[in-house]
Write a structure and sequence with these properties.
Helix content: 25-40%
Shape: globular
Number of helices: 3
Largest sheet: 11 strands, antiparallel
Radius of gyration: 20 Å
Structural class: alpha+beta
Distance between the termini: 75 Å
Strand content: 35-45%
């Protein structure tokens, strides 16, 4: 009797696991479809940096603009002004004092940062099986994707990346970046608008 009970429990466990895998595949497919159809995106953001060693946090705010397939403007407006613009293979770092243009192909760190920022805001990290091991859970009205780095260079920067998606829109509403040293950055995306017109000047490298 115990043997039969064990077999039944084993079959039930396998069935639940297969159902979870099927649900996760469906969620990934939905997110991928929305990302592919997203020509533009713009939103406000609130970024909170939690410093483990100091038991403190720093809060900054700004605006973000995205254009398929490789343009991103990340602009801090408070408490300081600073702009990060990715336009294909070039990155512009801009503050009140100076502008610096960097070729990401010649700077490995910036290339990874640019790629992570771009893929995170639209959810494309979930398709990057070579860089991350991903899992998805359903929490309330959200899909929560946890990504664990697989590559050595990624592990040197991050412990994990967690993406929160709105089930209704299938777009990212929050990004959590936990660094190797335990510091954590949480970015909340608000007032999200997709597929609206964006002036190409927003991505100019000057």
């Amino acid at each position: 009797m115990k043997r039969y009970l064990f077999i039944i429990l084993l079959l039930c466990s396998a069935h639940i696991h297969l159902m979870a895998q099927h649900q996760e595949a469906q969620i990934k497919q939905k997110i991928s479809q929305v990302a592919a159809s997203m020509k533009t995106m713009q939103c406000d953001f609130v970024q909170t940096k939690h410093l483990k060693m100091l038991n403190d946090k720093m809060v900054s705010k700004g605006i973000m603009f995205y254009q398929q397939s490789n343009c991103l403007r990340w602009e801090y407006t408070s408490p300081y002004t600073y702009t990060f613009i990715l336009n294909n293979d070039k990155v512009l770092l801009k503050n009140k004092k100076r502008n610096d243009v960097i070729d990401v192909n010649q700077n490995k760190v910036f290339k990874e940062i640019a790629r992570i920022m771009m893929n995170s805001v639209v959810g494309n990290c979930l398709q990057d099986d070579k860089s991350f091991k991903s899992s998805i859970s359903v929490v309330g009205g959200e899909w929560v994707a946890t990504l664990l780095p697989l590559r050595k260079d990624m592990k040197q920067m991050f412990q994990r990346i967690v993406l929160h998606f709105s089930q209704k829109q299938a777009v990212v509403t929050q990004v959590e970046l936990t660094e190797k040293n335990g510091d954590k950055t949480v970015i909340e995306l608000k007032n999200i608008k997709t597929n609206g017109p964006i002036d190409t000047h927003m991505f100019a490298l000057h």
